[in-house]
Amino acid sequence: MRTTAWLVALFAGIALLGTAAPQLELVEVRYEFGEVVDGIYVMQTFTITNTGDEVLRFTEEPIGRIEDPPSLCPCVEGTLPARTLEPGGSLEMLVTFESTGYAGQELTLLAEIHSNDPQNPIVNARLKGAVLPREAHQGSAYQLYRGLRLVVDLREPDALEDGKIVGSMNIPYAELPELLDTLPKDIVYYLYDDDGSKAAEAAQKMQDAGFIGAMSISGGLVGWWDAVGDLLFQRPDGQAPTPPSGTPHTGRYATTPNRVLRSYNLIVDIRTEESFAEGHIPGALHMPAEEVLAWAAQVPGLDQLPSNADVKIWVVDDGTGDACRLAEELQAEGFTTALSVLGGFEQWELRYESW
Predict the structure, then answer these.
(1) Beta strands 264-269 and 233-234: pairing type?
(2) Same domain (yes/no): 213, 340
(3) 57 and 118 inside one domain
(4) 343 and which of 157, 242, 290, 347 could share a cystine (Cβ 3.0–4.6 Å)?
(5) Among the three residues 75, 110, 133, which one is the final residue of a domain in this structure?
(6) Which among 54, 72, 55 has a CA at the least distance from the CA of 63?
(7) How confident is the model at residue 332 (pLDDT cuts 50, 70, 90)?
(8) What is the distance of C-alpha 229 from the center of its chain?
(9) How far apart are CA 194 and CA 224, in angstroms?
């Protein structure tokens, strides 16, 4: 009798061990974001709990999809803070939706969670809502980032008094190596100096460091003037610049001024000086809102661009709507490519790093 009881207990224990497993449970399975304008970044946190009695393991990163019609959607991203979850534990998964390009659509979006839960190896977190069209004078932070081209002036600061390309940022050649670790690698850099010699060296160094979008402007400022004259070339005092002189140099990773002008952004930040100092979009110019129209009128050639040039003016505010008003006024004054960043600087900061 004792032997029989012992065997029953043994087999019962083995059976219990055999049923031990992780179990993934979503506290909320769907978030309805209502209506957003095309270009707004949607964010929602979902709580995942392991209600099983074994460690829950996430077997891959969440996969973004559109439910109907079924398709993969890189616009949806799920971010897990850990790859495992102990029994009884919980974690927060951030799910984001980049709405740029989905105007006029009602969507149900999925973030597929893959795990070792034997009963439900795939569980979906859902976002549902509608994307409305934006106004003609509005652009999204996503659009700006995808087309971002940072123009870098490698000369010493005192040389800028003789003139520079409008919208360029100053990083002296000697300081560039120590800043490489702080610069994003997934955007395009156009580098220039007086004649293109140091810019060619800098482009090579950046390419070697993994900046595959780093290029020098062929011939530097000499090459710029030879190709397009004083277009976007301006002195800080507003006086006419003196044509640069010297022998133009080029390099292995070089591009022409005309090619630079095919996709060029002038970013104007009209927030307060304090806000701008705390963080801003790389390459942005800071000025009060009331000065923007006069500034645009004084930039050489900005109102009469060559047919093959695409120079956009992006106006950034803190979400007050002033940038929208200015973009409309700029368009009315003939600067037809002017855009405001929809949602202001906050929409940039939600997605990308600021400087």
Answers:
(1) unpaired
(2) yes
(3) yes
(4) 347
(5) 133
(6) 72
(7) very high
(8) 32
(9) 10
